[in-house]
């Protein structure tokens, strides 16, 4: 099996096609990248920028470059010595525009008689034999339906007519009543939907790849890529939505002849991949969380908790466990209530098991789940624990919970299977997409795949995790920024610096709340952290972010019922930093205070991520400073010509200093080149300890199999280091003479002062001199 030394993620879309990616391979090679990593490329909804709404799995999307584009990027990659990794989406299909999806069109036209009825996950009995589509503004809009050119039309929506269902002179409402689908008001989706979706997205319908022919047809084009030698590996989107993730991965390995496979799996602290998962690892959210916490000052936890309590107007800070239980119940009782009711319908109703109580009990168990899902029989103890916690919290449900437990533990039963598919949906919507916008004491901590109650990580704790990663998942991906991160790596690095400037942060928040008040204290903390981290940013970008953040939090406004007055106060607060001189000065002053320490954090986190155990990924454009916020902000176009020119200048000897963005490009290119060209330097992991008064400010490790490989040095808590007098006489002991790939300086074996090693940059990447 060919394995990448590193990857570089590109967002493929109509404005940046596969042909554009092909033209970039020489730059990626020069940067040091080993494999190019492509976002989904199968045919998706017209105009989709992300590609996760596949409508035709049998062809590469023409708007993204088509089959010719994939052939071009593969050829160019081969000529540049690069491998190719592609993101695929097995869990769901895009159904927003039925005419674009032949599978869905057939289902709507023929109902249960359609060949594709088995492919989609529909509860026909609940819908009275009809598929419910929540597309109407309200049920009264049935009178607005029209029949045009042999199709049912509702404004821009088009639906097929069943054979024989049209009769001249009948109303559109009459004809609609004869279809295999029922158009309903969109608000009814929360309780009355009868098909499985991706999370709560009605336009992404789940498919059943556990059925052999569905797997074969949905993966026929993917299989061709490997037969034709176009692609070397796959990234699997959302495997937690599948009925049988382990079975799917085993089948995929057969299809790809054992090729490299990564899964988008979020691991909670202490959680590990099931042993029967046939893959090389995850897409790196777990690594991201570990790296971030190295650069958060543990002493900041108590004062940030106190500030959180003050902003909430309470005596105590937010209780995270209580919060996420509440937000998950908000999801189970709201936008995913249809999924809970479907689970409840699988339990035979009786006086002892009334459906309402069964649904309540199932929702309570899911809200008590500590991880995204179990993979029975792996994770059986987690299910038992969640049921026990539910019984303690809700003793009145004890009888129902006792009856449900054996059903939930039965991996062969439909309830046990569907429960596993559902728990992750609730976790994602209730935690990542809600609680992470409510639990705001430090934005670095509320990132995809992280547990924000783990505030900081010591070097010793980090080393322990890296030793385990090297032993168990040496080919798993590491990352700092993705298309899904809520704040990019450099934004978070600056926010982490807030933990070393608590008095100044409190004063800044109070000043901004005077000048540009936001009438939601916890949200105000999130907004001013995010603006600080992303600055400088345009008014338009910040407007979009603060409104999205507030709607996701759902405390003061929401997606379904936006509060125009509150949202106006948010955008007015953003406007103040552009239009009110005092607010502008306060922001600029606070950013200036954090800037050198945020820069140090950025470079340090990057060198750690690029050299730690695993396969490092660079998200497009982040080889230079990137201070993005949540999507779509983090999917903006990238100026690759600027990066190409900057790399050429560096290679020609252009000087760079710490705060120059070329410093990050220097670090990234040298680390990637070293990993690609000198793999023998990255075969193990051992901590490198410092001696002296500032030892706690160093994170350092040797990647050699026997302690003689590449040595990474990085600075943590840089402001504290500066205020305490710098490195002073803190030193490390070098076993061999070394050369710093970043500065070109060489050092002899023996005791070496960190003030000397880190005199130019807060990081170093040392290699043995033979």
3D architecture notes:
This protein has 770 residues and is α/β, with parallel strands linked by helices. The strands form seven sheets. The protein has an eight-stranded parallel β-sheet with strand order 16-15-14-5-2-1-18-17. It has a six-stranded antiparallel β-sheet with strand order 19-20-21-26-23-24, with helices on one face. Strands 6-13-12 form a three-stranded antiparallel β-sheet, with no helix packed on it. It is globular and about 90 Å long. The chain starts with 6 loop residues before the first strand and ends with a strand.
Multimerization state: single chain
Shape: globular
Profile the largest sheet: 8 strands, parallel
Residues in helix, %: 40-55%
- Estimate the strand proportion: 5-15%
Secondary structure tally, helices: 28
Strand order of the largest sheet: 16-15-14-5-2-1-18-17
Could you provide a short overview of the structure?
With 770 residues, the protein is of the alpha/beta class. 42% of the residues lie in helices and 14% in strands. The longest helix has 31 residues, at 581-611.
List the helices and strands and how they pair.
Layout: E1 7-10, H1 18-22, H2 25-31, E2 35-38, E3 42-44, E4 54-60, H3 66-79, E5 83-88, E6 92-94, H4 102-110, E7 131-136, E8 146-148, E9 151-154, E10 157-160, H5 172-176, E11 181-185, H6 189-192, E12 197-198, E13 201-206, H7 212-218, H8 220-227, E14 233-236, H9 245-255, E15 260-263, E16 281-282, H10 285-294, H11 301-312, H12 320-332, H13 337-345, H14 355-367, H15 380-393, H16 398-408, H17 414-432, H18 459-472, E17 477-478, H19 489-497, H20 502-515, H21 521-534, H22 539-553, H23 564-579, H24 581-611, E18 615-619, H25 640-651, H26 662-677, E19 686-687, E20 698-702, E21 711-715, H27 718-723, E22 731-734, E23 738-740, E24 746-747, E25 750-753, H28 754-757, E26 763-768
Parallel strand pairs: 1-2, 1-18, 2-5, 5-14, 7-11, 14-15, 15-16, 17-18
Antiparallel strand pairs: 3-4, 6-13, 8-9, 9-10, 12-13, 19-20, 20-21, 21-26, 22-25, 23-24, 23-26
């Amino acid at each position: 099996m060919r394995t990448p030394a590193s990857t570089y993620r590109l967002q493929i879309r109509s404005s940046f096609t596969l042909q554009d990616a092909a033209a970039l391979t020489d730059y990626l090679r020069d940067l040091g990248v080993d494999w190019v990593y492509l976002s989904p490329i199968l045919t998706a909804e017209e105009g989709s920028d992300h590609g996760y709404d596949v409508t035709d799995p049998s062809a590469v999307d023409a708007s993204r470059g088509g089959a010719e584009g994939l052939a071009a990027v593969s050829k160019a990659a081969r000529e540049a010595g690069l491998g190719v990794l592609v993101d695929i989406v097995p869990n769901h299909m895009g159904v927003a525009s039925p005419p674009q999806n032949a599978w869905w069109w057939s289902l709507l036209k023929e109902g249960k008689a359609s060949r594709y009825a088995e492919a989609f996950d529909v509860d026909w009995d609940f819908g009275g034999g009809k598929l419910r589509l929540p597309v109407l503004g309200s049920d009264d809009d049935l009178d607005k339906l029209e029949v045009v050119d042999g199709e049912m039309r509702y404004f821009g929506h088009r639906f097929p007519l069943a054979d024989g269902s049209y009769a001249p002179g009948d109303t559109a409402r009459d004809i609609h009543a004869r279809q295999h689908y029922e158009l309903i008001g969109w608000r009814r989706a929360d309780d009355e939907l009868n098909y499985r979706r991706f999370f709560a997205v009605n336009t992404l319908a789940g498919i059943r790849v556990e059925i052999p022919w569905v797997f074969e047809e949905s993966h026929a084009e993917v299989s061709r890529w490997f037969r034709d030698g176009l692609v070397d590996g796959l990234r699997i989107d959302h495997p937690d939505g599948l009925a049988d993730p382990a079975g799917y991965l085993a089948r995929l390995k057969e299809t790809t002849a054992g090729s490299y496979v990564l899964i988008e799996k979020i691991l909670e602290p202490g959680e590990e991949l099931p042993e029967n998962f046939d893959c090389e690892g995850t897409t790196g959210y777990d690594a991201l969380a570990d790296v971030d916490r190295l650069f958060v000052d543990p002493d900041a936890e108590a004062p940030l908790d106190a500030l959180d309590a003050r902003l909430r107007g309470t005596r105590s800070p937010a209780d995270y466990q209580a919060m996420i239980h509440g937000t998950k119940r908000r999801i189970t009782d709201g936008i995913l209530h249809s999924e809970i009711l479907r689970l409840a319908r699988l339990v035979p109703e009786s006086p002892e098991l009334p459906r309402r109580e069964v649904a309540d009990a199932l929702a309570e168990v899911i809200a008590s789940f500590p991880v995204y899902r179990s993979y029975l029989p792996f994770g059986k103890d987690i299910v038992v624990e969640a049921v026990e916690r539910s019984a303690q919290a809700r003793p009145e449900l004890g009888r129902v919970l006792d009856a449900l437990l054996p059903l939930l533990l039965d991996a062969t039963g439909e309830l046990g299977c569907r429960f596993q598919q559902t728990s992750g949906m609730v976790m994602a919507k209730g935690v990542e997409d809600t609680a992470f916008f409510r639990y705001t004491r430090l934005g670095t901590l509320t990132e995809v795949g992280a547990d924000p109650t783990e505030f900081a990580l010591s070097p010793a704790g980090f080393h322990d995790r890296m030793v385990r990663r090297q032993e168990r998942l040496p080919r798993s991906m590491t990352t700092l920024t993705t298309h899904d991160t809520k704040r990019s790596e450099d934004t978070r690095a600056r926010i982490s610096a807030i933990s070393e400037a608590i008095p100044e942060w409190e004063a800044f928040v109070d000043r901004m709340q005077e000048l540009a008040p936001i009438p939601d204290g916890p949200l105000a903390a999130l907004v001013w952290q995010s603006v600080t981290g992303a600055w400088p940013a345009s008014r338009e970008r910040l407007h979009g972010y603060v409104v999205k953040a507030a709607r996701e939090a759902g405390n003061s406004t929401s997606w379904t019922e936006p509060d125009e007055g509150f949202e106006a106060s948010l955008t007015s607060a953003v406007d103040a930093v552009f239009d009110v001189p005092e607010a502008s000065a306060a922001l600029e002053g606070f950013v200036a205070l954090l800037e050198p320490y945020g820069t140090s954090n950025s470079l340090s986190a990057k060198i750690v991520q690029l050299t730690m155990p695993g396969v490092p990924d660079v998200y497009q454009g982040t080889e230079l400073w990137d201070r993005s916020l949540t999507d779509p902000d983090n999917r903006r176009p990238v100026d690759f010509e600027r990066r190409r020119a900057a790399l050429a200048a560096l290679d020609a000897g252009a000087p760079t200093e710490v705060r120059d963005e070329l410093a990050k490009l220097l670090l990234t290119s040298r680390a990637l080149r070293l990993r690609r060209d000198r793999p023998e330097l990255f075969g193990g992991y051992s901590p490198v300890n410092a001696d002296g008064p500032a030892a706690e400010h160093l994170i350092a490790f040797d990647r050699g199999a026997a302690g003689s490989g590449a040595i990474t040095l990085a600075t943590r808590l840089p402001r504290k280091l500066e205020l305490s007098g710098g490195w002073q006489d803190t030193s490390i002991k070098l076993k061999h003479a070394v050369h710093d790939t970043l500065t070109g300086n060489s050092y002899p074996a023996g005791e070496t002062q960190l003030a000397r090693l880190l005199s130019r940059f807060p990081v170093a990447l040392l290699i043995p001199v033979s």
